[in-house]
Please model this.
Amino acid sequence: MVNSMLNEKVIDTYSDYINDEKRVSPAERERINFEISLIGKMIEAREEKGFSQRELAEISGVKQPAIARLESLKATPQIDTLFKVLYPLGYTIEIVPIEQKRISVE
Model:
């Protein structure tokens, strides 16, 4: 569908939006996908350990409302907060070359 006044494609879905390079740069798309994946893994790890958000807050030193905001993607995680939360879950963060990441995904 095209908006005739602006001659722009109408965005109906998140996928359409995230994949439209006029709206979201490749670097920004990578950041968004990383954040979604990271938070998803964090939630999965917390649940596998059997921790509630409150319990994770107690052992990590990060307040429970902050963990809730992270898990709902309402806040962008800060590096120090990520390390505090991920460490008791048995995880860390590393930088991986883009080419290495592509190979491991395929």
